[in-house]
Design brief:
alpha+beta, about 290 residues, single chain, about 65% helix, 5-stranded mixed sheet, 2 domains, 60s Ribosomal Protein L30, Chain: A
Amino acid sequence: MKPIFFLMIAALTLFSCVSSKKYKEAQTRYDELNVKMTGDLNNCNTEKANVTRERDELKTQNESLNSRVADLNKQIDYLKESNTTVLKQLQDLSVVSSSQAENIKKSLDNIGEKDIYIKDLQASMARKDSLNMALVMNLKGAVGNLEDKDINIKVDKGVVYIDISDKLLFTIGKYEVTKDARQVLGKVALVLKNQPDIEFMVEGHSDNVPYKNGVLLDNWDLSVKRATAVVRILQKDYGLDPAKIAAAGRGEFQPVVGNDTPDGRATNRRTRIVILPQLDQFFKLLEPKKS
């Protein structure tokens, strides 16, 4: 009887150990999944906040433009009313010279053309804002969940900016693009390549710490070499049209924050890709319409 009793005790102990081990494994897996889901949720919340902020900025810009258009429309309505009154008064006069009548007619025609021009301009601005927002969303989707301090994509006053940190692109004091950074540039290039009409400038920026190394005399030289290094990769490795690209070195002279702290200097050391406004299309709006 005793052997059977001991066997039962051993079996229960073994079963308890196995269950405890599986429970611990399940608990560990649960904790890992919880950490991952919490991280993903935080990333989503950050992205949502960025998109909301950019949407609010565009909304403010549109409200300002609409206010200007409303003021111009009020001026047009006033001029129309004034001219109508003048014409009615002239009809009551016994004599109106042909030149006076022609001038009045031209004035009314000009008002009508101005009204059409304002509507065209308003439609073009709205379309441009929509295209910029679509481009920003495509770029953010392409680069994935990189931290904002490494790459920041935004719209400011109707212009799209892509800021890439010095830490991500280069080693300290060098202008050779790192292997990991080439992959990021490839993702950005893929989006830009799908927009063949886009022209852009690659700008190199540095902090204010004096720099000299071999043929590089100062921060001007370093920022220019970094800009051209990025341009060459976009052209040669990813096939972007060099006629659509410009390279510029800004040196230390356009900081985004102060250079008083290490973090501030790190923020100022960056490469910026600026999507250039299509000024030719804007100037076409200003050209007189051909009859």
